[in-house]
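Predict the structure of Alcohol dehydrogenase.
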Amino acid sequence: MRGVVFDGRRVEVVDDLVVREPGPGEVLVAVAAAGLCHSDLSVVDGTIPFPVPVVLGHEGAGVVAAVGPGVTHVAPGDHVALSTLASCGTCAECDRGRPTMCRRAIGRPARPFTRGAEPVYQFAANSAFAERTVVKAVQAVRVPEDIPLTSAALIGCAVLTGVGAVLNRARVDRGDSVVVLGTGGIGLNVLQGARLAGALRIVAVDANPAKEEAARRFGATDFLTSADGVRELLPTGADHVFECVGRVELIRRAVDLLDRRGQAVLLGVPPATAEASFPVSALYLDKSILGCRYGSARPQRDIALYAELYRRGRLLLDELVTAVHPVEDFEKARADAEAGRVARAVLTF
Ligand SMILES: [Zn+2]
Ligand SMILES: [Zn+2]
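Done. Here is the predicted structure for Alcohol dehydrogenase.
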């Protein structure tokens, strides 16, 4: 079958990939569509260290092809969106509603694929850039069949991360002020999360003025091409500033823009060794800096919720898809993403 493989030097669309059958508690999914997220490219450029060879992709949706023993919540033919969170479901963190903190789900990459005799790693417990992939049952979340799979695909990373950061981590409240630095796939979802939460002032900042229209459609009440103008709109600062780019100078900027009791939420991913600095006094008056893993999501609940909000017209998914390419054209999608031309390029199988 076809898939997008990174061997440590280059990315290749191959057609000799094999995936094993689902074991107990696993689901085999025929992937229909998968979004290209910056994290996939971060594996290729080394920002996210990952063993190779690896099948890329971690934001997909498709149709259940087979289920292993013990799986009862989905059946062959069901449409599912995939999460990247292979949480165990039985540890204390899972049990307290924090599956993103499950230690058994982090740092143990599996190798369910082979090419010839060589095992191939699965990226983010997911590898959605393959015609078929095997995931844990907890990762396959049933979605209604009237949602286009090219749109449902994006729920599993961009939407869970962006909307989840707003609702689950920052817990933005009605009337709050929100600043979003960077309006790519994650930033747009932070914007619509802030709108869902009832934020009053939602300021989008992106150096590219061409992003204004999309930012406003997703919920921005104001758009700026530089954070310099934020203080004119919010003289006392913001309740929440989301850094969605992954640059240390913008992280510092986020801290500087906080109002009393404000919080900076870090969603961008700078290189693993990057350090940021700020004056300690900048955190006086109850300010805080928050990390956020995967939108602090509970995927079985959140993916179903976002799918339903989409059906009711309250959450935008179709508008996130700005280019669709067959998987063979991975390089076109990559060029689109690297040029910042698209919110999301989606690959189809
Ligand atoms: Zn992602
Ligand atoms: Zn667990």
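The first strand starts at residue 3 and ends at 6.
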